[in-house]
Every structure is written in C-alpha cells, then in structure tokens.
C-alpha cells in the first residue's frame, strides 16, 4: 500500500523544501494551503493540493477522511515574510492560535481519518532561562510575560496535542531560527540558527524512522544541543536538497 502523507503548510518555507524529499523517498504527498492561488504551485511540485483552513474543523476533517493519510506533517505557521517587525505583534497572537486551536483541529481530523503518526514543527528558543546548552528535558518558559509568554504557551499547547493524544504517535521538532530559500533570511541569525533544508530533512528522517518524542534541531554551537537528533535520527545540520550528508 502506498504511504500517503498529508503536509499541512506544504507551500510554506519548510513545506516547500520538504515536499521534494518526500516525493523522492517514494511517498504520495497531499499538501494543504489556505490560499487557492497556491494550488498550482503545489501541483507543479508533484503534490495533490488541498485548499483548506485549519480553523475550519469540519472541512479539515472531511479532507483527511477523503485522503486517509498514514502520516500527517504539521508545518503550519502564521508569520510575516522575513519576520517583519512591523507585523510581528499581531503575528505572535495569530501564530499561537494556529499552534493551539489549529493543532487541536489537525490532530482530531488525523485521528478521525485513521492516521497513525504526526510530526509537528515547534521552536527551540522557548526554554526557561538556565545553563546552556538546553536539551529536550529542559522546561519551557511557560511563565514568561508579554509576547514571549504568548508564543511559548502556544508552543506548549501544540506539543501537548501532538504528544499526548492517543492513538497518534507524535514527534515534535523544535527548530532553531530558520534561514535560507523562501524564509526571508539569507544568513544564520539568532541563538540557534538552522538552514531550512536541514529542517526539512529532520521531518523526513523522523517520518522514516518512526521515532516519537521531542528533538532539538539546530546547527552545532547553538544555544540548544541537537545530539539526540544526530544519534536517533541520523540527522546533520549540513543536509541540503542537493546532497544527503
């Protein structure tokens, strides 16, 4: 039987890098976007497009029931291109809503459709301040105030939905600050930088290896350690679409 994968956010920066990896690995890929004008972009990439809003729980459930994907990969965000500072205040709230309500809807739809696995994008800069490098056992900074608190609590909700909702097997990838094609950032920046194509490879490897749990995904020398991902997923920060390092 063909292994069908539903990529939520397939037209985004990480989704666009992930799709060719999935197709090359032999998966049948269905990709969601809430913008109908992006459907042709997905078709051209070899994806069956699904135009649906993650906040429309009824339509989302119907779409997944029709597809019956074995696995769901959650790469949805609601952030301005290049993290435009003028738009970030509003984006923080919108993104937290996707992480909580949107993830809850996606998990429920996946379970209704009989999906077995979910892999979801989280962030690696949500840890409570302490000695570094942070590993996956370090607590999240859920008591933070202001926009950071909104963001971290959204992350905590996403991770809870993905990791604790039976019968799905859940994997959370805590990505560092993304840069590279389609991200609006050409060079590494932040405390835990990560190339977008290396981020996409982490999702593919998590899918192929069937690993559950939480993984930090960032370059060497980052504020977080990615040793668990290197050890269990055979992941490397040097992975790119052209070569598999």
UniProtKB/TrEMBL annotation:
Gene3D superfamilies attached to this UniProt entry: NAD(P)-binding Rossmann-like Domain (3.40.50.720)
Official protein name in the record: NAD-dependent epimerase/dehydratase domain-containing protein
Gene source species: Paraburkholderia saeva
GO terms assigned for molecular function: aldehyde dehydrogenase (NAD+) activity
Entry keyword set: Membrane, Transmembrane, Transmembrane helix
Presence of keyword Lipid metabolism: no
Domain of life: Bacteria
Residue ranges crossing the lipid bilayer per the database entry: 6-30
